[in-house]
């Protein structure tokens, strides 16, 4: 069949054969299918969607469009965790040592921040000496010796996704559930994990703003993973306010360490506890979520998880003294207190706006090539439902540029709303999606 006919078939919503999906995707990767044909195909997918069978084939073809990583020399069931991206989403840095300290190996590959969302790899680079680019052989050796490691996801994985994503970006086809699901899942599976845990964020700081779309995306990814032999579970968690207290890079590392000391944001801890116990279950360490949570609380109380983070930092060349000395992390030149201008209850937070403001200060990047400033950002411990009084300190802005600092202070007060009457705390964990179905948790 010609490429033109494959596009026509999708346009009319007729099911595609596995061979047809392979032909168009591999043709595009190899350069025999031009951008304009792939663009038309992606738009047809945007309107018509994909069946489970098509989606699983598309993902499989993408996985095998390039190299895949073999982690079979790591003993035990490897569980990877992926977040669809958010603000103050400081989950991975504490989660990896917690799970590793309880005996489930974590070979974590993470990404960098883009737009209003932060990335684990950038955050970790604020630890002096910490290496995020580590050859796979050494990565495997560290995981076997220490129990966990976090490295930068190889840019060589899934060339099909790289090329297709660049085209989606300029053809209005990014926001398609099958295209997002295959993009994320192909990279996770190509990186060699046995099981996958997805944290799909929903809300005004997330990729998916409403629950219905988030649930559709989660279900699509769970079906892909399970159909390709990787047990996959997804949680849908709230991103209608920053998850932790800190929005930046070095300050998020600080909050991550605080979490391992039993301090920091309660909502952030709750997400870590839930995802962590699910990882322990997927890794065969516990048979139910409640026992997992108990082990996690013990790992924090005993200091075992914090010690594990120190071991991981050291194994990756970093200075483990940061655990007890935060001044070793990059420090911003200027800091200024945020003062409440109104009394009442916080009713709404512009989460994306806060992420954008941190980006404006230098903590994030607009394009992949941009450099970032690891030391600046925003500390905002207030949550929806909190009562505040005029004149009260509600946060801190950290910057290396005085003009930007003043501008940020001015803009910040427009990023949340206050009401006179009490406001309810929003739910945190909405759904768990697995092979067994969708479970409502709020
Ligand atoms: N993240 C990805 O990796 N791919 C998408 O398509 C969207 C978000
Ligand atoms: Ca991320």
Fraction of residues in β-strands: 15-25%
Query: Helicity level, as a percent range?
Result: 40-55%
Shape: globular
Distance between the amino and carboxyl termini: 49 Å
Radius of gyration, in angstroms, nearest whole number: 22 Å
The main sheet comes to: 5 strands, mixed
Average predicted local confidence, pLDDT: 97
Let me know the number of strands: 14
Structure class: alpha+beta
Give the uncertain stretches in residue-range form: none
SSE string: HHHHEHEHHEHHEHEEHHHHEEHEEEHEEE
Q: Which kinds of small molecule does this entry bind, naming each only once?
A: uracil, calcium ion
Tally of individual helices: 16
* Widest beta sheet: strand line-up: 1-4-5-13-14
Explain this structure:
The chain is of the alpha+beta class. Helices cover 44% and strands 16% of the residues. It has 16 helices and 14 strands. It has a 5-stranded mixed beta sheet, sandwiched between helices. Strands 6-9-11-7 form a 4-stranded antiparallel beta sheet. A hairpin with a 2-residue loop joins β13 and β14. α5 packs across α12. It is globular and about 70 Å long. Bound molecules: uracil and calcium ion.
Descriptive terms for the model:
16 helices; five-stranded mixed β-sheet; 442 residues; binds calcium ion; 44% helix; four-stranded antiparallel β-sheet; alpha+beta; binds uracil
Task: Spell out the blueprint of helices and strands.
Elements: H1 3-11, H2 18-30, H3 35-48, H4 52-63, E1 79-83, H5 92-101, E2 106-110, H6 120-124, H7 136-146, E3 148-152, H8 159-171, H9 177-190, E4 195-202, H10 211-227, E5 231-238, E6 246-248, H11 250-260, H12 266-282, H13 289-301, H14 304-315, E7 334-339, E8 344-349, H15 351-361, E9 377-379, E10 387-388, E11 393-399, H16 402-412, E12 416-419, E13 429-434, E14 437-440
Parallel strand pairs: 1-4, 2-3, 4-5
Antiparallel strand pairs: 5-13, 6-9, 7-11, 8-10, 8-12, 9-11, 13-14
The structure holds uracil and calcium ion.
């Amino acid at each position: 069949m010609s490429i033109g006919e494959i596009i026509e078939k999708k346009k009319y919503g007729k099911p595609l054969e596995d061979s047809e999906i392979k032909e168009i995707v591999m043709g595009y990767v190899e350069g025999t299918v031009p951008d304009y044909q792939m663009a038309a195909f992606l738009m047809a997918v945007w309107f018509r969607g994909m069946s489970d069978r098509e989606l699983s084939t598309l993902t499989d073809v993408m996985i095998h469009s390039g190299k895949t990583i073999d982690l079979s020399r790591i003993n035990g069931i490897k569980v990877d965790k992926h977040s669809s991206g958010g603000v103050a989403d400081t989950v991975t840095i504490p989660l990896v040592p917690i799970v590793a300290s309880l005996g489930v190996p974590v070979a974590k590959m993470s990404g960098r921040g883009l737009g209003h969302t932060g990335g684990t790899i950038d955050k970790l680079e604020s630890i002096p000496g910490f290496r995020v680019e580590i050859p796979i052989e050494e990565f495997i050796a560290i995981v076997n010796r220490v129990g966990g490691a976090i490295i930068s996801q190889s840019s060589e994985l899934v060339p099909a996704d790289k090329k297709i994503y660049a085209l989606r970006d300029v053809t209005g086809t990014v926001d398609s559930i099958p295209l997002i699901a295959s993009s994320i899942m192909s990279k996770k599976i190509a990186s060699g994990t046995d099981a996958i845990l997805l944290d799909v964020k929903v809300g005004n700081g997330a990729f998916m703003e409403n629950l219905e779309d988030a649930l559709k995306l989660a279900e699509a990814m769970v079906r892909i993973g399970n159909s390709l032999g990787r047990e996959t579970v997804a949680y849908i968690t709230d991103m209608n306010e920053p998850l932790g207290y800190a929005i930046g890079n070095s300050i998020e590392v600080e909050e991550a360490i605080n979490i391992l000391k039993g301090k920091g944001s309660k909502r952030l801890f709750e997400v870590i506890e839930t995802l962590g116990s699910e990882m322990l279950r997927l890794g065969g360490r516990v048979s139910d979520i409640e026992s997992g949570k108990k082990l996690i609380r013990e790992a924090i109380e005993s200091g075992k998880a914090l010690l594990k983070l120190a071991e991981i930092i050291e194994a990756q060349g970093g200075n483990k003294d940061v655990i007890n000395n935060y001044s070793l992390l990059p420090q911003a030149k200027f800091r200024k207190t945020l003062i409440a201008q109104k009394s009442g209850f916080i009713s709404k937070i512009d989460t994306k706006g806060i992420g954008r403001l941190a980006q404006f200060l230098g903590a994030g990047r607009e394009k992949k090539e941009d450099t970032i400033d690891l030391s600046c950002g925003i500390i905002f411990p207030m949550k929806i439902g909190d009562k505040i009084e005029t004149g009260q300190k509600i946060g801190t802005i950290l910057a290396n540029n005085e003009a930007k600092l003043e501008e940020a202070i001015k803009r910040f007060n427009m990023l949340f709303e206050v009401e006179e009457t009490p406001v309810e705390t929003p739910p945190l964990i909405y759904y768990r999606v697995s092979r067994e179905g969708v479970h409502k948790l709020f």
